[in-house]
């Protein structure tokens, strides 16, 4: 499941990249930085990505999940740091909501 | 643009029902929702009107409705947050259950629909959101504390969301109607209504076309530089 989720995130990031001046380095795969110290997304870019990923997860996996809840925002280590940390977080949220 | 896809809340009666007829007549594809099934029939609405039964404060039901709209249409162009409830009573006589109901429908419902609509609209970098305020807020009407306060919150939501959604090509505006002869004000004493009308520059009830005229303006493609605004009717 995690590989499928990584594929979904990569697809959505590559669509988002078309609108960005500073693009996410998707060639780095799971280690590509999204948001925070090593990331390139600003807060608007992150909002756009989260909404797109939530919709794609619902379309492709049939799971209606919310990624930007208080828990995600208050974690010491943000789940939005890299594609890999975001995928881990989605797996965790999906298992909890299943 | 294809036939605009417009979502209107609170379409079972009153202004919501009239808005359905108006936008069906203009050739929009109209989606409506209310807590109950609609009992009316509008000429020409068949095939151009789709109704969902949902309480605007029920996040699960609302998200399921938006998911369905996204799968069917792939977009949403316009949202009119018309659903609302009023409470006319002295603050000392207002039960807390009423406070929760008014805040739930008017504030939480408006927020939820704005949020979910913006998620759909941002993909196309286009959207128009219209919220409902009221003249009771600037006039600070006695006996309408919780209703006026809830609509003050709607105005603040409108102004802040206008800034948050502006980058996505989504405008957010509000209309503040004067009293219109609908169920919403049927329990308000006549002397109260007369006193309110007397505080307007133009001393009459609002008509449906007064409301649709302002909404039509906000919805226009050319209104893409108009956002975060509240237009009060009647001259207050």
UniProtKB/TrEMBL annotation, chain A:
InterPro entries in alphabetical order: ACP-like_sf, PP-bd_ACP
PROSITE patterns, per database record: CARRIER
Name this polypeptide is given: Carrier domain-containing protein
Organism from which the protein derives: Pelosinus fermentans JBW45
Gene3D superfamilies membership: ACP-like
Domain Carrier positions: 1-94
Domain of life the protein comes from: Bacteria
TrEMBL record, chain B:
Species whose genome carries this gene: Pelosinus fermentans JBW45
Lineage of source species: Bacteria, Bacillati, Bacillota, Negativicutes, Selenomonadales
InterPro entries: NAD(P)-bd_dom_sf (IPR036291), SDR_fam (IPR002347)
GO BP annotation list: bile acid metabolic process; fatty acid biosynthetic process
Assigned EC number: 1.1.1.100
Keywords: Oxidoreductase
Family: Belongs to the short-chain dehydrogenases/reductases (SDR) family.
Pfam families (alphabetical): adh_short
Protein name: 3-oxoacyl-(Acyl-carrier-protein) reductase
CDD domains the UniProt entry points to: SDR_c
Keyword ATP-binding: no
PANTHER family linked: 3-OXOACYL-[ACYL-CARRIER-PROTEIN] REDUCTASE (PTHR42760:SF133), SHORT-CHAIN DEHYDROGENASES/REDUCTASES FAMILY MEMBER (PTHR42760)
Presence of the UniProt keyword Oxidoreductase in the record: yes
GO molecular function, one term: 3-oxoacyl-[acyl-carrier-protein] reductase (NADPH) activity
Domain of life: Bacteria
